[in-house]
Design a protein that fits this description.
The structure is a single chain. This protein is mainly alpha-helical. The chain has one domain. Helix content is 50%, strand content 9%. It has nine helices and two strands, in the order H-H-H-H-H-E-E-H-H-H-H. Strand 1 and strand 2 form a beta hairpin. Helix 5 runs parallel beside helix 7. The longest helix has 18 residues. It is globular and about 60 Å long. The two termini are 16 Å apart. 35% of the residues are buried.
């Protein structure tokens, strides 16, 4: 479902507030300025072409959903007391809000024929992939972020491997990464919850 202009603006304001309140690292201001510039469609692009968040502002909404999911997951007593998963608010915000930066400037709008409610054929818009920087998925997000600010190793690993076993990589490699870097596992869980339960299905 497409977001209304008012909802889109509200979510954009929420993203900026969370970003500025939590991310203080050198270069973070420059990255946010880029996201807000005409060079980026981050705040208006979809999260996928036909699955979760396949509408204007879908990526923005997905990023916020993942942030709230990750915060809630890591706040569980078991995460803190048993698994010792204790991460700064800055790391949580960076990983959640920016994990899908790879989808920025990734989609374009095209048109196809479809019948409307009256059974008349008409041109309707749809999103399609136009990958202008074919550098992968999680690794592309890491690559783009580090043009502006440094990532700690576990942050980079979390963003790189947030797709978990739904990615195309060797299962042993993915399993080893999730075992070594608990933040990667937590981000993967938060991402899947947002994609499958809050937004529909995952791409």
């Amino acid at each position: 479902m497409a977001l209304s202009p008012e909802t889109l603006q509200s979510k954009k304001d929420e993203f900026i507030r969370i970003y500025n309140e939590n991310i203080k690292r050198a270069g973070a201001d420059k990255l946010l300025s880029y996201l807000l510039s005409e060079k980026s469609d981050f705040f208006t692009c979809p999260a996928s072409t036909r699955y979760h968040g396949a509408y204007e502002g879908g990526l923005l909404e997905h990023s916020l959903n993942v942030y709230h999911n990750l915060k809630a997951y890591l706040a569980r007593e078991r995460c803190k007391e048993v698994y010792h998963m204790d991460y700064s608010d800055e790391s949580i915000a960076i990983c959640a809000l920016l994990h899908d930066l790879c989808k920025m400037n990734f989609y374009t709008v095209d048109y196809r024929n479809a019948k409307n409610a009256d059974g008349v054929w008409e041109k309707v818009p749809y999103f399609k992939v136009n990958d202008r920087l074919p550098y992968g998925h999680g690794e592309k997000s890491v690559f783009l972020i580090q043009f502006f600010m440094h990532l700690h190793t576990e942050e980079a690993m979390a963003i790189r491997w947030h797709m978990g076993f739904s990615g195309p990589e060797d299962a042993n490699t993915i399993g080893r990464a999730l075992e070594m870097y608990p933040l990667a596992f937590a981000l993967h869980v938060a991402d899947m919850e947002a994609s499958y339960f809050l937004e529909g299905s995952a791409e």
